[in-house]
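Re-run with default settings, no changes from the original entry. Doing this only to confirm the output is reproducible before filing.
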Amino acid sequence: MSGLTELGQRVADLYKEIVTTTVRFESLSRETTTDIAEARTAIQRMDERMQQMQLDHVRERAELSSQIKALDARLDALSESALHAVARDAARQAMHTILNDGEATHAALPPSADGLPGGAGRLLPVGR
């Protein structure tokens, strides 16, 4: 009977190892499944964050582009305004000079085709 007892003991030990191994396997399987699910969730959250960051980047870039265009338009308007102011000042100065010089200015301008003295605003005939 000692052979049968030893066989029974070996079967019992092997059964314990099978149960222990099965429990460990199931535990590891649950942990792995949990870890994979957590990793998928983390990856999904990172993907969503990256997409949001990309949308924010595109939005910010569009806002900056819009601001640049607005500033460029303002610069153009200011440049045009400054040009008009310079032209206005030059015209004012020219008129002041013309009015102050009086006769000297009329003498400096060539006579027109009808014999009248030339002046500011009068067109000269073609060919002169």
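The chain has a mean pLDDT of 86. The first helix runs from residue 2 to 101.
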